Amino acid sequence: MTLADRIVVLSEGRIVQVGAPLDLYQRPDNLFVAGFIGSPKINLLSAEVVAAGATEAAVRLMSGDVIRVEVDASRARPGERVTLGVRPEHFEAGAGANALTATVRFVESLGSTSYAYGVLAGSQEELTVQLSADAAVRAGQALRLGVRPDTALLFDPSGQAYQRPPAGGQSQAA
Question: For an engineered disulfide with 83, which of 65, 139, 147, 155 has Cβ 3.0 to 4.6 Å away?
């Protein structure tokens, strides 16, 4: 990621995506690339489509929380099983809207930053959340975590990413 201008990601001897490191990180074409690029790894959560449109989708997590994602989900259908992807640094601690709840299992302090490792409420799906170094978080604590719709990723049942909508679109999923 730090040495390359362009990266070619291979899976089973086939090219699955080519691009600049930041493009692969922010806009992976599929679940393989999303899971391969980035450390700590992306959070991948099982979800079901509640509503979908050309500029936004709403998905329900196993916890029952509904999360909005800014993607062109016009090919998605309500009830379809999808995967929500959220990078650890894209959670907003304490946010109330467009949020989920996780229970912290342990916290890793790294000086300038900390990582909270936990599980999504109502499931055993694991989460990693990047926090500021001074965040007062401890094991056993429930965290309400906001998800920014413009940074979350959504993958269809075959693992292909729903793409970001063109700029200036209107929300159609709600």
Answer: 155
Of the CA atoms within 13 Å of residue 92, those in its CB half-sphere come to 12
Tokens of 146: 């906001």
Report the topology of domain 39-155.
Answer: OB fold (Dihydrolipoamide Acetyltransferase, E2P) (2.40.50)
Listed in sequence order, the residues at least 6 apart from 128 whose beta carbon sits closer than 8 Å to its beta carbon are 40, 41, 43, 88, 115, 116, 117
pTM of the entire predicted model: 0.90
With pLDDT > 70 as the criterion, what percentage of the chain qualifies?
A: 95
3-state secondary structure of 26: helix
Is residue 108 pLDDT above 80, yes or no?
yes
Residue that the structure tokens 């991948």 belong to: 44
Residues 6+ apart with CB under 8 A from 147: 67, 69, 84, 86, 90, 91, 92, 95, 98, 99, 100
Predicted confidence band of residue 174 (pLDDT cuts 50, 70, 90): very low
Q: Which pLDDT belongs to residue 3?
A: 84
Secondary structure class of 21 (helix, strand, coil): helix
